[in-house]
Amino acid sequence: MTPDFKVIAAGINITSQIEDRLLSLVVKDEAGFKSDTVEITLDDRDNAIELPLPGAPLIVFMGYKETFLAPMGVFTADEVVAKGPPDRVTIRGKAVNLGGSIKEQKTRNWDDKTIEDIVGTIAGEHGLEPKVAEELKPFLYEHLDQTDESDINFLTRIAKDHDAIATVKGEALLFIGKGEGKTASGIPMIPRPITRNGELRWSMTLASRGNFKAVEAHWHNEETGQKETVTAGEGSPVKRLRHVHSTKAEAEKAAKAKLDEFKRGDDTLSITMPGDPTVAAEGQIIALGFRVGVSGLWSVTSARHQISGGGFTTSIETEKPKE
């Protein structure tokens, strides 16, 4: 299999101009609001490379000549570095739609709004298509404050109380369950089987998040003026959340989300394997042929795809999926 790529800069296919100069092409796909990134390093031995202007749009594809090229994302060049010797140029970019206005701080209130309403409003303000997991759409907030807080941070804060993630992918604003391996419409994504062989390297770490069996969360009862407690799970030790929620429903969601997080623990599996551009963050893999405790289902938290030295590798970080 012959690694292959395509780069379109500012609407122009520049692949033929850079393919014999390519030293490294790296695309990193991240879960949540971490920006997906691209880094292109080129041989500038004769100083003939035309340096792109910061802000230029980059569309990147990766794959193999014998099969297909997969779209890896649309990025904005935000840093260009030229250095030597040996002379080389490095172009770095971040995924579009994760800069500008969506990072600006805002102050406003959200009253009697569902998650679907909130995500829809914010998506519309930034020219994005809202995509919310079906089970999360109807959750109603009686009151939420967004005080000197960017839309990114605000959505991330809400997502944590639902064991969910909020992220921008392409032209869509996603609000979906974490580690579930589902699309926003609730359709399960097919896990990618990865069989242990001599071509891949792997490392697993088993850890604990305190072995909490239950989680307590508090809410303010306006009718009685008292602080009340809800509990997710049973047994001890018990984790007590500090934040006091506005309603019982919000407290219950937060407690369950934290308990689900504890159940997943800190177990992680890292794999470096022959390049597969279809593996992406928030997808899932099935590890086959590994030792007991490693084989099975894992959720992908990040995927790093690299073409360099005539080879193509994919490195993934995974965690245990939601039960």
Characteristic terms for this protein:
globular, Phage tail protein beta-alpha-beta fold, 4 helices, 21 strands, 13% helix, Phage protein D, 323 residues, 3-stranded mixed beta sheet, 13-stranded mixed beta sheet, 4 domains, mainly beta, Phage tail proteins - horseshoe like beta roll fold
Could you walk me through the main structural features you see in this protein, from its secondary elements to its overall organization?
With 323 residues, this protein is mainly beta. The chain has four domains: 3-95, Roll (Phage tail proteins - horseshoe like beta roll fold), CATH 2.30.300.10; 101-177, Baseplate protein-like domains (Phage tail protein beta-alpha-beta fold); 192-206 and 267-319, no CATH class; 214-266, no CATH class. It is 13% helix and 50% strand. It contains four helices and 21 strands. It has helices at 15-18, 115-125, 151-160, 248-264, and strands at 3-9, 12-13, 22-30, 37-43, 57-64, 69-83, 88-95, 105-114, 129-132, 140-150, 164-169, 172-177, 192-195, 201-205, 214-221, 226-233, 238-245, 268-274, 284-288, 296-308, 311-319. The strands form four sheets. Strands 1, 2, 3, 4, 5, 6, 7, 13, 14, 18, 19, 20 and 21 form a 13-stranded mixed β-sheet that branches. A three-stranded mixed β-sheet has the order 9-12-11. A three-stranded mixed β-sheet has the order 16-15-17, covered by helices on one side. The longest helix has 17 residues, at 248-264. It is globular.
